[in-house]
């Protein structure tokens, strides 16, 4: 379960950033996890709930956004949204798609008390 190591890195990152700004408590973290990122948001949430106690993010709410997968069809030129990596173009059925988003993981916001 690589969500555990990602959670460890996330907690280390936000702790370092918070302390650098004189913050002693984080109350909310907002992440963006692409649907194609191979991360399970619920497994990440479980890891966070297990690992956050005793850290600066102990009582923090973890908000996870999963934006749609966006691509451009190289056959018809349509900008499309997909559910899975190998879905065909919903406009023309083509399979030559250039992905623009869907595999990212970003810390979007960190709210401190």
Would you spell out the secondary-structure blueprint of this structure?
Elements: H1 2-20, E1 26-33, H2 41-51, E2 61-65, E3 69-73, E4 79-82, E5 97-101, E6 105-112
Helix pairs in contact: 1-2
Verbal overview:
The protein has 113 residues and is an alpha+beta fold. It has a single domain, classed as hypothetical protein PF0899 fold (2-Layer Sandwich), CATH 3.30.2320.80. The protein has two helices and six strands. Strands 2-1-6 form a three-stranded mixed sheet, with helices on one face. Strands 4-3-5 form a three-stranded antiparallel sheet, with no helix packed on it. Strand 1, helix 2 and strand 2 form a beta-alpha-beta unit. Helix 1 crosses helix 2. The protein is elongated, with a radius of gyration of 17 Å. The model has no long low-confidence stretch (mean pLDDT 94).
